[in-house]
Amino acid sequence: MTVLWWVSVVALLAWVWLAVCHGGFWRTDQRVPRGGAEPSRWPEVVAVVPARDEAGVLPLSLPSLLAQEYPGRARVVLVDDHSTDGTAELARELAAAAPGLTLEVTTPPPLPEGWTGKLWALRHGVERAAEAGDAEWLLLTDADIAHRPGSLRALVAAGEAHRLDLVSQMARLRVESGWERLIVPAFVYFFAQLYPFRRSNRPGSRTAAAAGGCSLVRREALERAGGVAAIRGAVIDDVSLARAVKRSGGRTWLGLADRVDSVRPYPGLSPLWRMVSRSAYAQLRYSPLLLLGTVLGLALVYLVPPVAAVAGLLAGEWWTAAAGLAAWAVMAGTFAPMLRYYGRPVAEAPLLPFTALLYLLMTVDSAVQHWRGRGSAWKGRTYPHPQRAE
Q1: 234 and 131 co-located in one domain
Q2: Of residues 116, 151, 121, the one with CA closest to residue 54
Q3: Which of 250, 266, 282 is the last residue of a domain?
Q4: Buried b (16+ CB within 10 A) or exposed e, 193-221
Q5: pLDDT tens digit string along 82-127?
Q6: Is residue 257 situated within a structural domain?
Q7: 379 lies in some domain
């Protein structure tokens, strides 16, 4: 037997283990929990929206949030993070044109050292929520997130009925351009593989994750976890928030969204590349060893199967081809549910190795940018050094 055969068998065994033993990461049935009676008293909610130069997406997102019909008291605080494109003025105009929930537009003080811009804006918004009312829940939602009717009510009902402290949804991203269709479903699939939703949702599990675009957090739980300041330097703020809440004894839940959509366009490869690479090395805790392990792992699990299948067929090494094809088939089978969730043909599943290669290159590029001192760049700001608030 050749070396390629042995490696392809290892890849096949890895895929069997991932499919059977890795928390059912490939399933797409984790949706906002239902069941249980609705609250007899609907708690007050404040939605906090950090926004920096978001004039291009606000007309598609903010009106949907302001239009939420909620049985209790609810309002929106939009934190204009020193935008230069008229974000604040546009937000006020949208609120005036489509009356609904009350909107407050506020601007935080200048960004201090040790904070990421989004988390500094969130902290300011949370403080404004506390000063102006007695909100029991905070909806932390991004400026590009559109909420379909009933979204806020369903989130609060789930949190109250199931005694959760953090209810988070992975917003459905756009899949309109060719690159979006190729990369976005895989992006969510890889995230679920890294943080299996079912495992994260178990109270006793060490896995904890959330989606920053839409996270409803109980204010008391956030304070118990140390507030936004506890994760002030986190580049991957959603996962850090879930860990902080869970570590402090809170119950968290994460799933795929049915009523929450991102309206941010990614028309080409470049913006998608930046979206992934800006935080990929931070996800690896800036560790060269973890980077090496990740590159080797991606190559083994995603690249070896198609290489073994094609090379085996061309060389007449049928056992090698069989092992490669079997691993490739299991891989495609686990990816199929995510494609269906995004309304894409299951026939696209065999393309996953190519997308995985792109992600491998994005991860390496993320490390290279960090070593060059550019770090995690986003919205005109660069965070060049690891900033961890443990």
Answers
A1: yes
A2: 121
A3: 266
A4: bebbbbbbbeeeeebbbbbbbbbbbbbeb
A5: 999 999 999 999 999 988 999 999 999 999 999 999 999 999 999 9
A6: yes
A7: no
**pTM of full prediction above 0.70:** yes
Q: Spell 365-384 as b/e; 16+ CB within 10 A means b.
A: bbbebbeeeebbebeeeebe
The single-letter code of the amino acid at 357 is: L
pLDDT value at residue 325: 98
Q: What is the DSSP letter of 196?
A: -
**How far is the C-alpha of 16 from the C-alpha of 22, rounded, in Å?**
10
345-357 pLDDT, tens digit per residue, is 999 999 999 999 9
CA distance 24 to 183: 21
196 and 308 co-located in one domain: no
The answer on pLDDT for 385 being more than 60 is: no
Question: Do 185 and 244 sit in the same domain of this protein?
Answer: yes
CA–CA dist 242, 207 (Å, integer): 9
Contact between residue 68 and residue 39 where contact means Cβ atoms under 8 Å apart: no
- Domain count of the fold of the chain: 2
